[in-house]
Backbone:
């Protein structure tokens, strides 16, 4: 399985994601500069966290028009697995691949801490190695993770089981319906504020993030077997 | 040349935590009459054209696709004629 990790000016979790794929899965992973416009040959894309373009205008707004994003949108439309973490989630929303928006945290503070998440759907390409309702420890580090969307979009997300992770403890940012991570209707695009790549070995404080990577590999293998 | 002055504001339904924090500070300063504060953005976009109708169309699309986020923001703009002295930003290299 081949992963691409696009790097924008201001990304800062790119190598954590690359190391995450290598250490957890031992699969092939390549950093891809944001000027690249061809992602053919990759099976999955991880949009890393950070502060692309310094969060100028709005978080993720300028990265959305980087050349690489056209091929990320194409990859998503082809059914390839795409995950956006933190700033990557913001970019996916700006690109229209996921609904809603991430506003400034309701308490105005940047929050860097461990959060407890509840796995709300384990029948997905990103969560099949978790148990339904399981609580996991994954760190966050953001100032703008306050998920919002209009009431009809929220109803759709709930009705279609697109909310994969909710904050199980204190809501760290004011997110609507305690939302920490959502996927698209097709089930191949995930956006989440917490950082699974920062929780892959016990000395990090938690290794609960590993199973997000192994879930993706499992889904890809099943898909290969079916094809 | 034409200059578009664009105002981007949070939708009324969206909580503005920055505005609330500023309101609280104004109260601390003694301005108890302050009932509400909302924070927005003002952008100036200078266009090298005199075609007002095309400029309005372009600015509207720029606002819809990049300058504002329709999920949480509204925009308004006005366009005025300007001369070249309106261009004041230095030419930073592109990133």
Residues:
């Amino acid at each position: 399985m081949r992963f691409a990790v696009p790097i924008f000016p201001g990304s800062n979790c790119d190598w954590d994601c690359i190391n995450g794929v290598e250490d957890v899965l031992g699969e092939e992973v390549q950093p891809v500069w944001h000027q690249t416009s061809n992602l053919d040959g990759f099976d999955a894309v991880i949009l890393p966290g950070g502060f692309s373009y310094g969060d100028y205008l709005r978080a993720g707004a300028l990265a959305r028009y980087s050349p690489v994003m056209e091929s990320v949108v194409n990859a998503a439309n082809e059914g390839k697995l795409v995950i956006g973490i933190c700033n990557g989630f913001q970019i996916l929303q700006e690109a229209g691949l996921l609904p809603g928006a991430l506003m400034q945290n309701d308490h105005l503070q940047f929050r860097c801490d461990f959060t407890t998440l509840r796995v709300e759907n384990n029948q997905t390409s990103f969560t099949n190695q978790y148990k339904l309702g399981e609580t996991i420890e994954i760190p966050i580090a953001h100032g703008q993770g306050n998920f919002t969307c209009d009431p009809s979009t929220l109803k759709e997300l709930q009705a279609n089981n697109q909310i994969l992770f909710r904050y199980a403890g204190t809501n760290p940012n004011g997110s609507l319906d305690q939302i920490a991570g959502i996927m698209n209707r097709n089930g191949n695009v995930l956006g989440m504020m917490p950082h699974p790549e920062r929780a892959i070995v016990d000395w990090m404080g938690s290794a609960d993030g590993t199973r997000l990577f192994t879930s993706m590999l499992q889904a890809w293998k099943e898909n290969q077997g079916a094809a | 040349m034409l200059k578009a002055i664009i105002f981007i504001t949070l939708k009324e339904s969206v909580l503005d935590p920055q505005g609330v924090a500023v309101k609280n500070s104004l109260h601390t300063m003694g301005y108890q009459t302050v009932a509400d504060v909302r924070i927005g953005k003002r952008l100036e976009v200078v266009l090298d054209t005199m075609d007002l109708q095309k400029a309005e169309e372009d600015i509207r699309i720029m606002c819809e696709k990049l300058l504002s986020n329709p999920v949480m923001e509204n925009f308004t703009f006005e366009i005025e004629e300007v001369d070249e002295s309106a261009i004041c930003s230095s030419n930073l290299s592109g990133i």
